[in-house]
Amino acid sequence: MTGSGAVTGPQLLERERELAVLAAVVDRARQGEGGVVLITGEAGVGKTSLVRRFLADADGVRSRVGLAEDLVAARTLGPLREMFPDVRDLHEPGAALAAVEAEARAGPGPLALVVDDAHLADAATFEVLRSLGRRAETLPLVLVLAYRPDEVGADHPMRRALGVLVGAHVHRLELHGLSEGAVAALAERSGLDPARLAGLGGNPFYLTEVLAAPDSDLPGAVRDAIVGRVHGLPAPTRDLLEMLALVPRDADLGLFDGLAADVTASLERAERSGLVRVTEGRVAFRHDIARRALEASLPQSRRVHLHRRILGAFEDRRADPAVLLHHAVLASEDDAVARHAPEAARSAAHGDAHREAVTICGLALRRPDLLTHAEQAELHGIAARALYAAGRLPDAARSANRAVAIWERRDPSDPQYGAALLTSARMQTMVARPDSSLAQVRRALEVLEPAGASPLLATAHEMLANLQSIAGDSESAMGSAERARAMAVDLGERLIAARSDMHLGIALAGLGEDAEALSTLRRSVETLALLDAPEPYARATGAMAVTLVWWGRVAEALEWLDLTDRVASEHGFDLLRLHGVAIRAHAHTLQGRWDAAEAALRPLLQVDLGAAINPLPLAFLGRILLRRGDADGDRLVDEAWPLALATGQVRRIAPVAAIRTERAWLRRDPGAVRSLGEHALDVAAQGHLRYLGGEVLRYLRRAGDDVEVFPGCPEGFAAGIRGDHAASAAAWEEAGNPYECALELAESDDPAIAGRGVTILDRLGARATADRVRQDLRVRGVGPVPRRSAPARATTALGLTPRQHEILGLVARGLTSPEIADCLYLSRRTVDNHVADVLAALGVPSRRDAVATFRRHEQSARTLGSAEPGSE
Ligand SMILES: Nc1ncnc2c1ncn2[C@@H]1O[C@H](COP(=O)(O)OP(=O)(O)O)[C@@H](O)[C@H]1O
Ligand SMILES: [Mg+2]
């Protein structure tokens, strides 16, 4: 099916618009600005026909076509390997991507790359399609994906691949059945009563079948008729067709030699029956609906028997392990499953086809007694990594532990035992079991050390460094990272050396060696970029951002987060990306962009980011809500605290401890500020987390403690602690941190200055804080300060902020607060607060009045032709 060939076929009905879209995309692609065309619709609606027609008509367009097939676990990069049979070593997404790009650029003319039945493809293929989808815009490439949307459920990997396919270069062609008019015309041409075709929904496949043999008029009846036609054929032909029905796509003609008697004659008869089509030495049912109908009609025992015969034939021709595994499973041949699964699993793992790897390992490990110990351990290891990549962390940790247990029982001196321990240790960190992680890394060191320097041993030292860092033992972490680095350099392992640099940088940051930490991290990032190692690169840029954020260097941190986000999004490193989203939200909180932070954090609460990351979004969102006086804030912070403690990580415990300290201050509980604050300070100091240290120290001061500023304390906190509120506020203004600035201004005895602080708090929507500060001012006799009012950052003609304007617009459209909250990813409470502010700003008593004002305004804006900024 490669090459556009001479498939011309009959004219298609009612597909002019779709063909025009495809032609237009081709025209742009000729200029080097390619595109993506997604063709969707039910089976038989005409997706494949549309693609064929398009390819036949497209002049000067080169094409490569791949078909995905319905196997128990899809072939790794199946459609792409089919498109590029000439490219060897097409075993992982990077190689496939390079092959497509090279072919697209080779010219002459643009390249049409078609994946038919794409919903059946493997995860590695989706990975490639995702990258291609983004790059098509700048290549002479038309990427065409035909698939059945009903097969693409919420957790289907294609969802994620297609989710990123947005933009003007992406076109969706939703195919529907033919119109009543077209159906009537068809019926008339064949002298048929159009009413006979009414129950077919205009589906061209069923229409074609009924027109050819007009004795049935419903899809089920058409399928029965197909099966009936097979039954009417001589036994050898029927036998052959039934076998073909169990081969998910097509078979080469030679497959049946030895499987059936008189193959040539049987094939000929089958072809003449019109049920199958023979092209280029391969035979297939005319349509998959017919194949499935026949398959479904076979008794289970017959299917098992036929799968056994097919398996034998495919084994003789050394077919792809995924194909062998498919027939082995459906033949219920456990021995054969055990024989083929390891190879299929390796291929899936090598290609990053995670979903398939998980399926295959699961199938094979149902009968561990048929596998060697080494195979069992290997499959558990593959499953662990694939589950991890799929974000199923607890399952991943369990699988990794099983691999460890198998080696332990069998041969604890095997370096593979060491490797299994390291894999498992990584998973243990992710599920927040730092103690077992540490124990496993130490055990790995014992196992690996006797054999001397090796990449695995260097990796073990690197991981030890990581664990020591997160536990706050930066001194030891530095030693381990240096050992790892030196060994890696000796071995010429540049990647491990660069990763060790990252851990060295983190350790240096933990020791308070700022300049050296930054230069080491930078060196790590640069080397990882050169080595084209996206995963550790995203990690290292993320580490840089996190380090800077905990020092309060927010603007720089945001720049590094952009890099993390770009690479993690492009490569689908979801956990890294979402961790970045959480850190970014925290940075935005420091900058006073609370709505943005809240909108980013809310969806994170719906995902399992792993026990090691989960506490962050809870705590970050909890803090915003606490300040806003939203009762949910308490719940979130209380939820975050034990989770943070369980991680054993300084960079998890310290932030939540600091938030708890702040809450105690908001609640006017100086005793709690003191006890919580001292602990928080300890943890923050352990990791030299200066911003947090300063923040907590400042609250201790507010609680009346006589505290001393530590070296490197952010200037805003230091000045505040010294009692120089003006200098402190100026420092915070300079740093772009309105919340801390407001708190310091509010300490002033000058009512005008204190009032400015209160106004800032109102503008941030920090109701709880503002209430507390107003009370303090009253008690101190400073006043008058502004009464609570609508925010001063009005920018729209109605005197509303863009956010308020947006929310009022939704109210006007009849949405309730919970609906608006859902739609904007805000809490209900926040929405209610916004609505209250809107009423105050408009000076009206009710939502209805606000909506009336809004409508009046819209009306006059329309007549004046003025545009209104409606969103942030
Ligand atoms: N627009 C059309 N007009 C007439 N016949 C069509 C049309 N689209 C498809 N067909 C016929 O319907 C059958 C099924 O179409 P196909 O492209 O294989 O569907 P799909 O790929 O969506 O399952 C084909 O035999 C084809 O000849
Ligand atoms: Mg099709």
Which whole number gives the mean pLDDT? Answer: 91
Share of helical residues: 55-70%
Radius of gyration, in Å, reads: 33 Å
Largest sheet: 5 strands, parallel
Molecular shape: globular
Strand adjacency order, main sheet: 2-3-4-1-5
The CA-CA distance between the termini, in Å, is 50 Å
Give the beta-strand count: 8
Low-pLDDT segments? 1-8, 865-872
What is the helix tally? 42
Strand content: under 5%
Bound molecules: adenosine-5'-diphosphate, magnesium ion
Q: Structural class given helices, strands, pairing?
A: mainly alpha
Description:
With 872 residues, the chain is mostly helical. Among the domains are: 16-176, Rossmann fold; 218-298, Arc Repressor Mutant, subunit A (Orthogonal Bundle), CATH 1.10.10; 300-371; 615-780; 802-864, Arc Repressor Mutant, subunit A, CATH 1.10.10.10. Helices cover 65% and strands 5% of the residues. The protein is built from 42 helices and eight strands. A five-stranded parallel beta sheet has the order 2-3-4-1-5, sandwiched between helices. Strand 7 (276-279) and strand 8 (282-285) form a beta hairpin. The longest helix has 18 residues, at 393-410. The chain is globular. The model is unreliable at 1-8 and 865-872 (pLDDT under 50). Magnesium ion (MG) binds next to helix 2.
